[in-house]
Amino acid sequence: MTRLEVLQAIERRVLWLSAWMVHAANARPSTDGLKVGGHQASSASLVSLLTALYFDALRPTDIVAVKAHASPAFYAIQYLRGRLGAADLKSLRVFGGLQAYPSRRKNPAVVDLSTGSMGLGAVAATFGGLATRYLVDHGGVAVPERFVVMVGDAELDEGNVWEMLGEDLVRRLGNVLWIVDVNRQSLDRVVPDARPRQLADMFRAGGWRVDELRWGRRLQARFARAGGERLRARLETMPIAEYQRLLRLPAGGLRKALVGVADGGIDAALDRLLADVADDALPALVGDVGGHDLALILEAYAAAGQERDRPTVILAHTIKGWGLPFAGDPLNHTMVTSAAQIEAVRASLGVRPGEEWAEFAADTPEARHLRALPALFTAPAPAPTPGVPETVDESYAEVLSTQEAFGRVLAALGRLPVGDSIVTVSADVAVTTHLAGWMNRRGIYHPDTRIDAFADVPQALKWREGPRGQHVELGIAEHDLFLLLAALGLTAEVSGQPLLPIGTLYDPFVTRGLDALYHALYAGARFVVVATPSGVSLAPEGGAHQSVITPGIGVTLPDLAYYEPAFAQEVEWILLAGLRAVAERRESLYLRLSTAPVEQRPALPPSVEQRAAVLAGGYRLRDGRRALGWTPERAVQLFATGVMVTEALAAAEQLAESGAFPSVFVVTSPDRLYRGLREPRPYLETLVTADEEDIPLVSVLDGHSHALAFLGGALGVPQLALGVDSFGQSGTRPDLYRHYGIDAAAIVRAARTLLGEP
Ligand SMILES: Cc1ncc(C[n+]2csc(CCOP(=O)(O)OP(=O)(O)O)c2C)c(N)n1
Ligand SMILES: [Mg+2]
Asked: Quick one: which atom of ligand 1 is closest to the CA of 45?
């Protein structure tokens, strides 16, 4: 057997196993009445490209993000390569088994990078290429050396892919290879006629090397014959839907449809060109697309392997459902073979009953080929975690916003050794999120040292770009921001070289990148997001820039600790703890900050206990019980987050003057308090004492009231939850606090209502 024949035999086996695996999963007795599903057609269209990759082209230093809906074919390959057993294949979509879509956290033994939500995994993987470049430029090693990204053609409809293609740093990534499965079908439809052309144009515009595998060698040979260009023109000018229809026609009908012309006659020249092709050979000829021609695929992979200076994309035309009874059927995305259909597949692939799960016997050419292959990528053991200091020895002004405090802490970190591990990222808001001090010290990352055009002009910020820089400045694209954090936040696991990534953006635009943030966390990346400014407190900026719903997002996103500190010292403690959690791979941090100046004097003096309380989620700042004549009947608890602490303190003064006994609690993390409710002794309960059990509470934050609305229920007391429950607008801070009912007066009113006063 030639090498190509061996690969073809393996390809058939991969096709069979992927179809059979899904078939078997759907044949399992159902206990819940749900269909299992499994994407046989999407797997089949990628079988040839995957086979050529995993059984020939892939190097041990390559890492792969697989097209999510081809996971069965990918699992079949991992099985043939000895990394999964038959029992694993049988566990497809079973609880605890192989996931529907490749998940590096759930199936770490085989999956390099998670995919599933269209476009996100692919771009995160691409930024992995940038992360490697960054590591190398900072004294690390090029592991992995190359990122191979496989995607569906309709997947490229997702705008976040285009955002990535527009990113200047990407066009230089010679360590990135994309393989697009151009089967011209999405879930519902045949893709628009202009799409394949647009795809090529879009990558070219992004500076990529574009390689197209449109037709296979058999068709190309036909095209090369005298008059053969007519066949090419016919195939390439017909609407995509018409071509897809040809794939579905029975042998006899196909010739007629191909050579027929509008007036009912035939194209005689074309007919002559195909005269020596038998009816039953015609479907295979017409369906001879480049993405199933292993020899062409191998050539394309080899050429891509030579490219050093720019990314490559291979646009490979394929057939969705290739080799299966529903090949090319426009509705085949969700189809699963019937019993009769799988028998037809079995017959066509020559699989004997009882040998459905069989591997290649040891003495076969296929088995010998497998044994001779280089190993697949395995991530190196992670280097020691960067040490995060206990303190940065920074002092803070008497009036300071939490955003300014962040800038100071980060600049201070830039003077310490831990700063070497920190990399910051911003989507064009580095200066307005207070990164300037850090950037001046550590510089801006660019693979080349670049001339600072403003070097001789006095500037508050030095735009010093070079390979040692530690701030990555992206264009305005929040998906790119989070997906780059996803890549930088996974270098410990993927490259064995941990980083401490910090991304900054305006809080309202967290929702713009939310899917990407979700993906980054889902994929297991660890990073810090500093979202500032937030809330209506950036008053004159108006509603388009004021965030309302983000606190709820902070509470609900898994693996992400959400904090919103009130005082400067708290920012330092929380950021250091967050970086430590990243270093120890525990969780990511979402720090929601404000530009509102805050009087620091009311802050409690720093102490070990105070620091622990801030990190645990909150503390009592003002104790109503200290007042003479305290009685629970006239007591009220004010729970405030971030900038609202100032309002709560003012409200407490007014309430105290009128004979009430308010305590003020600072909630540094609604998230921590909420999560803590499942503990045997919730931290929230430790904040109040036994004699305060029935005291009602008012909560207030600069964001939707819902994020603190659980407090009353958790403590079993009446609550009025104040917050910003509609969209923001321009004004002064007092205007807006008054309008949205979160100022001291509103807190006083709410407290009086709870105390039963008019
Ligand atoms: C963000 C997102 N939106 C929608 C879907 C549902 N979906 C799954 S596959 C698919 C079509 C994918 O088409 P394509 O990328 O061409 O893949 P293939 O044809 O290879 O199956 C859609 C819309 C999804 N997985 N992710
Ligand atoms: Mg497709």
From this structure: 20
